# Entry
Amino acid sequence: MSMIRNIFQENLQLVNRVQRKSKSDIVTKYDLTEKLCARRMKAVAHLMPEMQERYAKTYPEIDIKSEFADIASLPVLSYDIIDEESYLCLGAAIWMLDQIWEEHEMQELCDLLPEECDYVDIPDVYDARFSDEIIEGMLWIVQNRYGETDRYVVPPNILSKKDDSVFHKILDMIPDRAKEAAAAQLKSKFWEWADLYFKALSPLVHEMRRQEENLDRLTDQIEEIKKKYFPKKQARPTLPLTAPLPLLDDIPIKNQKLEADMLMCQIGKAEEAHNNISKKIGDFRFTGLQASVMSKDRLIKCMNADLAEAMYNFPVEDPYELCFAILYLFDQDDDYAWVYSFMTAVICRAASMLPWGFACYEEEEDGFWFDDGKWIPSMPLNPEWYEPKYAGQRYEDDEEEPHEVSIAQIIYEHTGAILPRNMHRFDDAFRPLKKRGLKPSEANMVCALMDVLGEARRRREYISDGDFREDLDWDEIAQPEKAEKTDSAAEENERLKKELAQLKEQAKKVNYSLSRENRELKEKLEKSEAAVGEMTQELADLREIVFNQQSGTEEKATEVKITFPYHTTRRILAFGGHDSWLREIKFKVPDVRFMGEDISSPEIIRRADVVWIQTNCIGHKSYYNVIDLARRYDRKVRYFKYASASKCAEQIVEEENADE
# Structure
């Protein structure tokens, strides 16, 4: 901890010097205030043992401890700087909305969202699933989850946050499995970035060590010359190491000038090479933690080209999920969020991959819809979308009377949506998209998507006075205010509005409480029903096995024609079984994972779809461990009814086909 604190202090002194010159609060900007520094140092200390275990033996030339502490305290990036550039909080808000939508809890959510938001920092976005009001309300909740502030990821009071906020009520609506999976995914990406970082740093450090050794060797040679030609008893002038020896004409070493000159030239080159590699390592530390927003050429200048490519194109499967995950880890006060370094690198990459992460949309600059501020007229309807030339099926028994349908009809058949009449608007985007690297088929698809989404974004509603209006607020239309009101009527109206607001607030609280209670009861009932069903099936299987064992006979399996080896599609685990039984059955169902009695990790069962148990050869302890883990992770359990490997393999196949 002392070493970590010293390194943090060194980097903090650097920041303070820059801050005095620039007269801006850089310490706060990079989250290096006293309280936040203390939490960050604590996180680095907690993760240091795992960091050391992972990389110390692989990269002995790198001092892993000091390197990790150094990059964890460098003023390279902060989460709020990333949010200012790429709106990562908006990505988190949309991910949360999607999860709640999937859980059918939108009504309960809307009861918690603010009716009117104060200023919300949001780019111009249109979403096909959620209205602008819902997105803005959710974003406001996320940005001000610990109180109103202008720092949305790491606000000043993050270390003294309250757990009774609306944010936490909304957070409770998201299934724990989704939240934990998001957090686990982000942590795995942290280590993936660390792998790349140390792999790229290793050859640079190795080269610096080589240059240091070369410089030490040349310095030793110079010292040997001094000792040889300047005996200890002989007085000699005090000269700097880099002084050119040819100037010492009054000293009897003229015949050694050539050798000394060559050495001094080599030392100069060695010092320059050492300075260059040292600068390269410094550049790498800064660029390697923000590679996703750097140019590829700049990355290649300070690291291996393949590793620069890997960092530049670092894989992130779901950027929305990772944006939520970092907020969730902060909410849980998880050390991973507080170590910055590789974590800020991953979050910077994820945020830059969001639709608005590269550049924000500006309607006035939309050349496909406006030309010098004027609306561009639509083109004629494209008949290709409406030409019936594809096989259609109106009824299930329609094979005798086949008919043809158009693309527009197929789309309507499955979505209920009709295409925009103008599917030509983005035709001019085809060639620019190809120049960006899209294939012709991809460019055509993107143009069609832009046609549909661009039209939907500008959807207009018709209102009673004959005007068209965008972003219609039906509440305002349902209760229009008269243009002229007396003072008394205005006061009465204001009083009624306040009463209505109070009633709405009370109704909202009651509705939220009832909705939450209903959801919890529904979840308990569903879990109970599922558990009873599984237990009933397990009990029936076990009774059948016990009966067969007591009667000394095996039930004859129904003859089925199955070709072995048979490849299953689900993730199947099997526990128990004699060695001879295992050798035979593994050949028949090669995709099944046979564990014997080994439960090396609970993750194995958590990732399985079905767990099979051979009861005739498994210890009690192993059996109960398997059952407990399967029930904890809600995994289906089945029992082999036979001692024969062939019949057991047939059981697996029958179960697989029945589930399909």
